[in-house]
Design goal:
2 copies of one chain form a homodimer.
Chain A (H helix, E strand, L loop, with lengths): L10 H12 L3 E4 L3 E4 H17 L7 E5 L4 H12 L3 E4 L6 H11 L3 E5 L3 H4 L11 E5 L13 E2 H7 L14 E7 L7 E6 H15 L13 E2 L8 H4 L1 H8 L2 E4 L5 H11 L3 E4 L1 H9 L12 E4 L6 H9 L3 E7 L6 E4 L4 H4 L4 H5 L3 E2 L4 E5 L14 E6 L11 H7 L5 E9 L5 E6 L4 E3 L2 E3 L1 H9 L4 E11 L3 E10 L4 H17 L11 E5 L12 H9 L6
Parallel strand pairs in A: 1-11, 3-4, 3-5, 4-8, 5-6, 6-7, 10-11, 12-13, 13-14, 24-25
Antiparallel strand pairs in A: 1-2, 8-9, 14-15, 15-16, 17-18, 18-19, 19-20, 21-22, 23-24
Helix pairs in contact in A: 1-9, 2-3, 2-6, 7-9
Chain lengths: ~550, ~550
């Protein structure tokens, strides 16, 4: 009988591959645990036995609520490897939202760190399915709450160490998590084994072949500072495992601990959002830690030039990346080749970057026609890659909007230069469409924000019978004369139009003054509310 | 309608991906042609029009007989992208073998360089299918032979530049070539689009994350010195394209030209068999060319330590790799991380190396049980990877042997250390199986070859009723006393056994003396013939 092996792209293969050459490499959890990859495999097998013993296999959904730990990494492998779906619960959501995601995901089990037990316990009566509960704790004397199946380490110690994972279709669902917008319920985003393996490989094809010390290399020491529940820690734990890197999981993010771990283990590669990097640089302990071998990928929000320069002054090799929950997440990386060869690299490092290998990006108008790649013409960024989510869980209309025309719609507006460098200029819902032009609300706000006395500014589009929309500014001012300030704002916008930084359509029709701009619950300027306030006449010029 | 794009892994995606960021990068053909990647895409589209116009699309087989050229690279993309199979004809085979492969592959078209027209023309009457013929030439005044569809450049110039490639199943066959053993007809080996894309990514995940200047990085200049008909130039043209490297195709391999191209274009990355590297180092022009930035991967045969040292003395960063026609080809690479960190790196560089990411290797006994990873226990090397051929074309029994037990059988015998380093010790058909032990014929020959007066040596196993097989030596001697030489050989083997370099089973039962060892048509020692000569008593002690 012919028995050629048709190698499915399964998450288990990433671990199996690493074990062949890196069995003695280390995985560190804060100051608690130091494992080898060989230990990791044993624990992944024991966890497989535990899950299997609870009847959690194919079609089951297993949720995790934890800080970044080796246990979480074990779940990254073992849960999908038994054929179940790993639901990485966003522990920063409100209890009601957490409950919503647990019920929407149809979780069959929850592995919960004791820090989150007080959040979870009151929700239990309202969880619609029977759930198995497993306690995660760093303490030997932790009490397992009533109704729990047990404590993770005790369960592992008692489990069969020889669990044999079977193989299955690579399109089997592996992970599930929820993304929250400003409105509506959280939306479930899923990835298959195949997508995660290809994302891992694509990420390394992008980050490996960087000349010099940039990117990711086999001598790096890796520590995530993006929570593992955020798009699988941006996929890096899988990539670090495949490469056999020393991995350091920091537990709860506290600046003092993070800096101490960087120093103690010689961490050379991390990733985080801009605010975390700023927090670390501002921490008092930071000054005495050598950060000159540290490479950091920034995502989740644009990398501000000031922060990039502050990091570079500390010797940090910092670069922006771009993606979103729906894109697994990697779509683009700042040009790490160019940033090694240029004198002032801040602008290269902060750019949205170039599409990584296997990613196709287009900038399109509302009819899905390509706009010119001239660095000026803007449109919505749409994408194709082997690792984009195929839709929102149980949300047909959301999926339809996401994939209109067969391309994933990022909801971001950007421009692209002929060399493929993308610059995001706005969110699609905030861009002002006037006279056939797309005006970046961000660009307009940036210019107005430089005017003396302007504390806050929002640029929004209001309906206009002739031009579609027209820009309107809403300002909060300091102790300045309102009339003078308005005149200065108009002059600054006119100057930007004259200099070509803004299109002639960007001159605002009206300027409203408010005490403070309305904000959303997470502190972002609430443009939706501003637009409705303008519409119902509750703002004054 | 929901229209999520399920991204198939197609060869066209490699080119499309590169075009986004490297449209102005160069592709050079000897001293003839300098193209940009944007030009390459245009030419690939025009070739698509030409092929399509000849009715060559899905299910067609298009053969190429060419030196390494940009035109060959265009075929690497365009032929599979129209859905056809690219048959890369081994132009070094005998005319009869070439005819066999053309008929066995069922070629529908042959693109043939004028240098090979004299080989092909006499074969045409015996080609069983109707074939379209296209002439490849570097000369503007070349005469197109009767019966040809035309000359490549002229056909491209006249073709529709806007050919739209469609998409199809990633498991569609993309390439086909033939591998020859010492006996039997050439065997057809096929790869799908999916396999080639995954091999490309796997290769870069292996070679990208090497620290320092090793491996492959985005600032490399690439030139193949393994013919493109040998396992797709070991896959590197696809990898170089995906990374957007400057690529240099040298045409026919002539030492002077190769060295001149390395110097002119600052080539930093190549791959070749050991004999080609030796030839380049020995060429008179070599002394004046700076090779200190050149990285070379050696495959196809073991990298001799002496050659490695000679290359290192010239500043060349040389490493062995291992694979075969049936494995696309990459399975292992010498440990490039270790070779950067150690003083004397020759042994690391010449080792068969460690499995690259996504490759699973086992060393097994005849019952497919794993032997110990102790660096001593030997067995057959068997493999799994996402890019292994699924079988030989129209050869069920060969396929069955290749994939016995669900693992690809390399036919090589090796040992593995706990850190995953493989060392090939013999071909399975040459290993001597005695008393339950596997004795490496190569190891035994190496030791005997050091004895004074021994010109040639072959160690072969002969049937033994008690021990299964017993080793026998066949020697060709110089001007030495036969009896003394035999005694010295026995003493050398005994010393090696005493020192642990050989097992106690390795002491030969008999030593035959011949004038010269019999060779195969390609100059290898013909052990099959030697065994039959021993069996029929035609050798004397």
């Amino acid at each position: 009988m012919t028995q050629a092996y048709t190698y499915p792209l399964l998450i288990g293969q990433l671990l199996r591959s690493a074990l062949q050459t890196s069995a003695q490499q280390r995985i560190t959890y804060a100051d608690q645990i130091d494992l080898t990859y060989a230990d990791l495999e044993k624990r992944v097998k024991r966890l497989g036995s535990v899950l299997s013993g609870l009847g959690l296999g194919k079609d089951a959904v297993v949720a995790v609520m934890d800080w970044d730990s080796n246990r979480y990494l074990e779940c990254f492998f073992s849960v999908p490897m038994v054929g179940a779906t790993l639901h990485t619960v966003n522990v920063r959501l409100s209890p009601e939202q957490i409950l919503y995601t647990i019920n929407h995901a149809e979780d069959d089990a929850i592995l919960v760190h004791e820090d989150f037990v007080p959040v979870l316990l009151p929700l239990l009566p309202r969880i619609t399915r029977k759930v198995h509960l497993i306690l995660l704790t760093d303490r030997a004397d932790a009490v397992v709450p009533t109704g729990f199946s047990g404590e993770y380490e005790a369960l592992l110690a008692a489990a069969d160490p020889d669990f044999a994972f079977s193989e299955f279709d690579e399109n089997t669902r592996a992970t599930l998590f929820y993304t929250t917008g400003t409105t509506g319920d959280p939306k479930g985003v899923c990835y298959s084994h195949r997508q995660l393996v290809l994302h891992t490989m694509g990420q390394l094809v992008a980050l490996g072949p960087i000349p010099g010390n940039g990117g990711v290399h086999r001598n790096d020491v890796y520590m995530p500072i993006t929570p593992l529940f955020h798009v699988h820690g941006w996929g890096f734990p899988y990539a670090a495992t495949l490469l056999g890197l020393h991995q350091v999981y920091p537990g709860r993010y506290e600046p003092t601990r993070l800096l101490a771990l960087i120093e103690k283990h010689g961490v050379t590669f991390s990733h985080c959002v801009p605010t975390i990097l700023a927090m670390l640089l501002q921490a008092p302990e930071s000054a005495s830690v050598d950060l000159s071998r540290w490479k950091v990928i920034i995502g989740g929000a644009a990398l501000p030039e000031g922060l990039a320069r502050a990091a570079m002054a500390r010797g940090i090799d910092v670069h922006a990346a771009y993606g979103m929950s729906e894109t697994c997440p990697f779509l683009t990386l700042a040009d790490m080749v160019a940033s090694q060869a240029t004198a002032d690299t801040a602008l290269i490092r902060t750019a949205t970057g170039k599409p990584i290998p296997m990613v196709q990006l287009r900038i399109v108008d509302p009819e899905m026609r390509d706009v010119a790649k001239d660095g000026i013409s803007s449109g919505e960024v749409v994408a194709r890659a082997p690792w984009l989510t195929q839709g929102y869980l149980k949300n047909t209309s959301g999926t339809k909007d996401l994939w209109g025309g067969g391309w994933l719609h990022t909801g971001d507006v950007g421009v692209m230069t002929p060399d493929g460098t993308l610059r995001i200029t706005d969110r699609l819902k905030d861009v002002i469409k006037s006279g056939g032009e797309w005006i970046s609300s961000l660009a307009l706000e940036n210019i107005v924000s430089t005017v003396n006395g302007v504390l806050e500014v929002a640029a929004v589009g209001v309906p206009d019978p002739r031009w579609g929309e027209r820009p309107v500014l809403v300002l909060a001012l300091g102790a300045v004369d309102v009339k003078d300030a308005k005149a200065e704002v108009s002059a600054a916008v006119d100057a930007a139009i004259g200099g070509g930084a803004l299109s002639k359509w960007a001159a605002p029709n009206r300027i409203y003054i408010v005490k403070a701009l309305p904000k959303t619950s997470v502190g972002k300027i609430d443009k939706k509310l501003i637009r409705s306030m303008i519409e119902d006449g509750s703002l004054s010029e």
